[in-house]
Amino acid sequence: MNVWIEKQKYLIDFTLASLARRKAKNLGLLLVYALIVFLLASVMLFTHALRQAANELLAGAPEVVLQRMVAGRHDLIPPGYLERIGRLRGVQEKQGRLWGYYYDPVVKANYTFMVADDRALAPGTLVVGAGLARTRGVAPGNLISFRAYSGKLFTFSIADILPAKSELVSADLVLLSEADFRAFFDIPPGHFTDITLRVANPLEVRNVAGKLAQQFPDSRPILREEILRTYDSIFSWREGVVLALATLALLAFAILAWEKASGLSADERREIGILKAIGWETGDVLRMKFWEGALLSLSAFLLGYLAAYVHVFHFAASLLAPVLKGWAVLYPRFELSPVIDGLQVTTLFFFTVFPYAAATLVPIWRVAITDPDAVMRG
Amino acid sequence: MIFQPAIIALLLSSLLCIGLLLAATPFAIDLIRNWDLASGSERQLLRERRTYLLSTLLAFVFATQLLALLLFVFNADRMASLFVGAMCAVGTLQANAFGFPALLAQILVFFLAAVWLVINHVDTRAPDYPLLRTKYVLLLCLLPLLLAAALLQWRYFLALKADVITSCCGSLFSDATPGVTADLAAAPPLPTMIAFYLSLLLAGAAALLYRRWQRGGYLVALLSALAFAVTMAAILAFISLYVYEHPHHHCPFCVLKPDYSYQGYALYGPLFVGTAAGLGVGAVQAFASVPTLQSVVPVVAGRLAGLAAGMFAVVAVVASLIVLNSRLLLLAN
Question: Is A3 on the interface with B (CB under 8 A)?
Fold first, then answer.
């Protein structure tokens, strides 16, 4: 075993020296290779972090949301619905929610107005999301006016700004008291936007939804797991589409690798000819070339992956974000928490190292079978 | 649903592997038919050079297949969140009729590829390519299987639809539903536990004996295969229960989930490597009498036997740790 390791060590040593002799050519290949890894790794790291963020944020969302439909459109819940639900087995808590959208012509963006159920807000005060605060340039204590859909002007004072940590979902959020909300949107008492239900046992969620659908034929239950699944699918799909497009780049890269590996300079040919003349076997040359490929692949992989990590988690994926995140006037600014995932690394390895290895197999063999006399005779 | 990164990677690699194999087949047939080491003709010289390319290429393809199994299972587990009703890889694999056949084919390919790699390794250690014909005949036998595995994978991934309601592992691996999985799941824990440790002990002991005295190579392979089957049954019957700390959850796939800190990989990894090594010991026995391999086979097989014994020991230790650290009491009385 030791002899084997020693032999590989000498081979690697020799390979490194031989790579260093042709710096320009190998550095060029390394850079292109690393760039490919960087591109793919950025896509993967970014979408995975987005998925993770969505998962974490939705973890606290209610398991079931009940919406009333009128002529296929979402409508207000009329009085009495909450009471009619009664006691459903498995439901821990049910609550009517009040929320709506408001178009602000000043910044040409939509806000989400919502009644805060976990914090008591004094009438006339608001808590706003960090995105909104940034665009309107407001700070706690400032006054802000909105013209309601009824035409009346309402003025609120900003009590607080929501923490930037939750910005992915709260960028455009405006929290206000129930009385203010009803006055602003002209919603009579007893009406709600929708109803949320908390179900402790995940296996019961579907049963609860089934019962609700039966009891209220005019309403639709929306499950948290379905929202999560949709997010998962959307992010994976976007990632897949970008990667499928990137396979074209991979193809170009494979052709480049093939060219580089087969276009041997006269120097390299002579080198291999001499090696074989002094007793190297074809297998040894193959092994040396294998180490060359492995060293190049690994360095490119590490380099590209590291660069992608820095790009995604320190520079907020500035190159890719528009494609993968979607777009809006009030787009949330958020820090993604770094996640590295085994499946992603394995997949990335398949995407980059595998085509490179496949493309260089035949050229390497061509090199390895070179006859020493043919080369040295020139 | 093929626009999933891992699926694209798997399909890409299977397409490339099949392409490489098909391109290599005419050369393999030529080698089988016309190989003559004694001849000094130009064609023979070319053939000798081609063997380098072919064996490198095939080693590459088969090594890829080993990795592909890992990626396939990893991906199946992860995609469970995309299907209604799926909690782990079982749901993903049951989403259509091709899931489990594709997995089984991939496992079969894994072991056969490992055996082929061992034979290839032995062959390259001898100066006169004694197993050249055997190697390429084996390749031609393996080709249909690889094609079938790739085809199953394609059919499986292409037919995946997100709106299918699939079933959870609880329904497949419960002791109530009829079928072989249920019979295994319903196996009594204590006898299965004894059988599990006994089979691992036997396989490990046979491997160590082979390493010491170079005897019973076939027995090592047989006992390794047996240990593999019994360990699978044991995972269904009791190890999974200890992992989940739940007396009725028999799923062999949920152990791979992060919720159980990936304990499954610590169990399946050594098991697959050990079994492959054990099978390899048996596979090279047939060539022990070839003159140029007489000194090679015992060395290579001895190393493999050592690896197999070590891996089976790891499986036993990991399983014991799982049982000891669990708060479930299955054998209280």
Answer: no
